[in-house]
Amino acid sequence: MAILTSSSPFGALTVVGGRGGIGKSTWALDIGIRAAASGLTTAYFALEISASQMVKKTLSRLAAPNVPADLLFKRNALRESHWNHLAQACADAMALPFWLNDNPVITTSQIKGDLQDIQARCGSVSLVIVDYVQLIEPMRRERGENRVQEIDSILKQLRAIAKQFNCAVLGLAQLKREVDSRSEKRPTKADFRESGGFEQEAAVMLGLYREDYYDKQTTQKGIFEVSVLKSRFSSETTVNLLFDERFGQFKNLAKSQY
After folding, report:
1. What span, in angstroms and rounded, lies between the C-alpha atoms of 4 and 156?
2. CA quadruple 50, 56, 57, 58: dihedral sign
3. C-alpha to C-alpha distances, 17 to 27, 29, 141, 174, nearest whole angstrom
4. pTM score of the predicted model
5. Got the DSSP string for 105-129?
6. Tens-place pLDDT, residues 77-129
7. Closest CA to 28 of 61, 52, 6
8. Are 36 and 42 in contact (CB under 8 A)?
């Protein structure tokens, strides 16, 4: 995931927008697993997905391509040859410096507290993934403000967390529904819901798009577009990845036999 490492330095907030079902969580988890596998302590705050779902996704990702994901959790579906690979995936998952919190009601203060605990145990935190930003609970002093002010404040606090812990913070965001009703459905900066704070507070803004999400007959099946909509560190560009939905894997399209 060169687009993340080149565009999201430590101490900065990156926000990633996409419509529901486009693959934001799967993409973010793939990045988190890759980062943790390279030795970077990673914290994933899954506000929408349960821990059991995250574990299933993680094992599916780590057991690929030896264990088909569609068989992984079906009763009596695995063959004897699959079990060694699954056992190795479990061992690999346990060894990763990957911390998961699936509390669906959490504030930025609680996120900060968790990161302080991880830092005390591991020495540092390198990557923080929040899935997703609009689900973060506003602090008590902010409740009663309008939604724009709440989101603005949350984004300011996420940026402060990135700076305080000198880590990359990757905040996923749900885009406006209006995206689906227009002819050009690729995300723009204006599509980030509810707040102009996304553009103001984030050092990097990324948009995710899949043609086959909207057109099942497209010749662009499996192509996952990651567009840099804004960056303080690089030019705006688009990177095409190959998305293998069977295993939740993303590959460099230029190096894949597509």
Report:
1. 21
2. positive
3. 12, 15, 27, 6
4. 0.87
5. S--HHHHHHHHHHHHHHHS---EEE
6. 667 777 777 778 788 888 899 999 999 899 999 999 999 999 999 999 999 99
7. 61
8. yes
